[in-house]
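User: Quick sanity check before I run a bigger batch. Here is a single chain. Can you write out its predicted 3D structure?
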Amino acid sequence: LFEELVECDQNTLSKTVVVLPTARLGTALMSAFARKFGALTPPLITTLDNFLFHFQSYYNPLEFSSLKVLDSVKEEMLLSSIIMSSGYKHIQLMHAREVRIFFSEISDFDIGTNAFSKIDEILLTDIYKSEQHVGSLFERFDELRDLYEKFAVFCQEKNYMTTTDRLKRAVSILMENWE
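Assistant: Done. Predicted structure follows.
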């Protein structure tokens, strides 16, 4: 990428947007430019997430103005709070991170509470497990379903949005407006 970019003239380079998977790669690219050119007007270097958020705010600046985006730490804290107040038998505070990742996967695939119905179907058709084992799994997934619903209701009431949901919406806006 660097070799391609250094072939551009200064004017073209200053009007170029480079989207990289991590900010660290952006720092490395800027360092390479500094070693090669000394002083220059660099391209705009950004991560995919930042590019999507910028694009979304350009096309729909008011859509997210009242929403507060939860980062992963805030999501885990909120889940921990719900876990503590709900007195679940199987879900404990130490599970908040894994629960957050599981809920993010559910969101990524747009299956919402249907995920738990699918899990119920799978458990019911598993003829190789003992009744006691399947019963325990049902209890665990019922607790997860309850936690998922409480988390969703809380987020809706407080105008919170997860980072995963914001990214999905930003991609949707990008797809709608891409020319």
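Strands lie at 17-20, 44-47, 68-70, 160-162.

User: Great, the batch can go ahead then.
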